[in-house]
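Reopening this one. Same input as before:
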Amino acid sequence: MIYKCVNCGGNVVFDPQSGHMKCLSCGGSDCEQSIPSETPMICPSCGSQITYRNEYGSAGKCPACGTFLIRDDFVVYPYGPDMILPFKFSKRLAEEKLKEEFGKKLFLPADFLSTKTLEKLRGVYVPFWIYDFDSNVDYTAIGTKVRTWTSGDTRYTETSYFDVYRKLHIKYNGIPVDASVEMPDGIMDLMEPYGYDALLKHDNKFMSGFEAEVYNYTPDQLSGRAVKKINDTSMEWAKSEASGYHSLLTKNMNANNQLLGNKFALMPVWIYEYRYQGQNYMFYVNGQTGKCVGTPPRSVSRAIGLTAAFAASVAACASGIAMLLEVL
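Same output, byte for byte:
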C-alpha cells in the first residue's frame, strides 16, 4: 500500500511537525489516496522487489524509487495495531535534540552528528503491548522510630519497632512493554514515559514516511515483564503509604494481579546508528517527547590532540610569564 497525491501522483507521507499528510512532490496537504499492493513484497509504484529491514517489517521505503510504503498483509488481523502514537518530532527536530544532548561532549569523532552521518537517522514505529491490570496488594514491614534525649552528661537513644501493614487496591492502565526483538528492552524502558493520552485509534496513514514492525512476541509471552513493572511500582507505592518511620524493612509483599486486557500499539522512536572503529553506537530519540538515550564514542586521536594543544597553551603562558619576570 502506498499513499499517492490526488493532485500530482507523488508520494504522500505523515508530517509530524504539522500533524497532516504532506505530498513530497508538490507539497500538498491532506491530499492522499491509498493505493493497495497486489503483492505485499512488490513496490506498487515502480514494481521493484521490496526487502524490509527484518521479517517483522510492516512499513518501509522502496530501495529503488524511494517511495514509502506499507505492507498490506501486516496491517490487518491478526497483525493490525489497535492504537498508534503518531510522531510529534520531525527528523529535523530529532537531529537538533541529538546535537543538544551529545554535541557538546568532549573528544567526539569529527564526523559524529555531521550532516552526512545524520542522513542515517530513521523514524521507526516500535511495537508495544499495552496492559491493564487490577491489583490487590498486601504489604508488611518492620518500621522503626528513634527517640534521643540527654540527661545530665548522658545521651540516650530509644528505638521502637512496629509491625507495619498496608493493603492497597490499584488499577493500572496502559503498562507498556516493547514487543520487538531488535529493540533492546532496557533502552525501550528508558524511552518512557510516553504521553499515553495521545494514543489514537490506529490509522495506516500515520505509518507513511516511516518504518514499522508488527509484534514479534504475543501478549502472553511478555505479560511477565508487565507484571514486574507493576509490582515494582506497587512496592514503591506501599512504602510511600507507610511513611512516618525512621526506617522501613520490607518483610513481604503479596500482589494479586488480574489482567483486564491488552492492546497492540505502535510507539514512535527515531534511531541513529553511528559506526566508529568497527563498532556500532546506537542512539534513540523518543518521537513524541524528544528524550534521548545513548552513549557516544570517544576519539582517542582528538583527545590526544586537544590535550597536546592545551599543554602547548599552558607552556606558552608559562614561557610568557618567565620572560615578563626576567624583564622585571
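So the earlier flakiness isn't reproducible anymore. For the record, The helical segments are 91-102, 185-191, 219-241, 300-327.
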